[in-house]
Structures are given as structure tokens and as C-alpha cells.
Design goal:
This protein is of the alpha+beta class. It has 2 domains: 74 residues, no CATH class; 48 residues, no CATH class. The chain contains 5 helices and 2 strands. Strands 1-2 form a two-stranded antiparallel sheet. The protein starts with 7 loop residues before the first strand and ends with a helix. The C terminus is likely disordered.
Length: 130
């Protein structure tokens, strides 16, 4: 027996472009809710979320869930929605491979927490981000 295909939403919004995505559901009622949500996002100026859906940074189901919980403002969007792996890659690329950072001192107020790390030589071979 074949698995039923998920329903598709195909909408276009000025300033965002075309959003053609699988909904992740076979239920037409949920698809209609998603379509109404997209319209509401556009009408309220949440183009950032529409672009995130278009660019595959957010799924329709994720945004629908936050929309129903009235938690859209808590969602990270755009550059702040960067994945941990992407952030780690950027951070690793900025490090100097043969510098020992363990003895670094900085001017900081007394009692503030410190974070120290050591980047051993050959670190690129040992750190793997999938």
C-alpha cells in the first residue's frame, strides 16, 4: 500500500514571491488553516516568516503551531534562525588553529563568569560538524 502524498500549498505574495510547499498533512482542513495563516501573516506584515517558509528555514507545520499558540513573536527569523551547525562552522572558521587561547585574560568586572577554551593544533581534523 502506498503512503498518501501530502497536500501542497501554492501561493504568491508581493514582496515575498512564490511559496510552493508540501504541507506535511493529508488533511484538507489543516491545509486551509495553513493557507489562512499565510494570508494573515502577509496582512499583518510578517514577511520575515513568509520568507523563512519560502527559503525552507521554517516548515508550514512549525509556523502553524506557533500561530495557533499565539507565539509567533517568540520565533527566531532570518539571520537569528541560523542553525547551531552553521553558527559553529562560522565560529570555527574564525579561529586561528595554532593559537593557544587558554592563557588569555580580558578586562572584566570581578565576579563575572569566565569562559575559557583551548584550540589545539590540528583542530580542523578533530572537529566534525555534520
Amino acid at each position: 500500500m502506498m503512503t498518501p502524498l501530502t497536500l501542497i500549498i501554492d501561493r504568491t505574495f508581493r514582496g515575498v514571491g512564490r511559496i510552493k510547499k508540501a504541507t506535511g498533512t493529508t488533511n484538507p482542513v489543516v491545509r486551509r488553516k495553513m493557507s489562512r495563516m499565510l494570508t494573515e501573516l502577509y496582512e499583518t506584515g510578517r514577511l520575515d516568516l513568509l520568507r523563512d517558509i519560502r527559503d525552507n528555514r521554517r516548515t508550514l507545520l512549525e509556523v502553524l503551531d506557533a500561530h495557533q499558540r499565539k507565539a509567533l513573536d517568540a520565533m527566531a527569523t532570518g539571520a537569528t534562525a541560523e542553525t547551531l551547525a552553521d553558527a559553529m562552522r562560522r565560529w570555527i572558521d574564525k579561529q586561528q588553529p595554532d593559537v593557544d587561547y587558554s592563557g588569555c585574560r580580558s578586562a572584566r568586572p570581578l565576579g563575572s563568569p569566565t569562559i575559557s577554551f583551548h584550540v589545539p593544533s590540528g583542530w580542523r581534523r578533530r572537529i566534525s560538524i555534520a
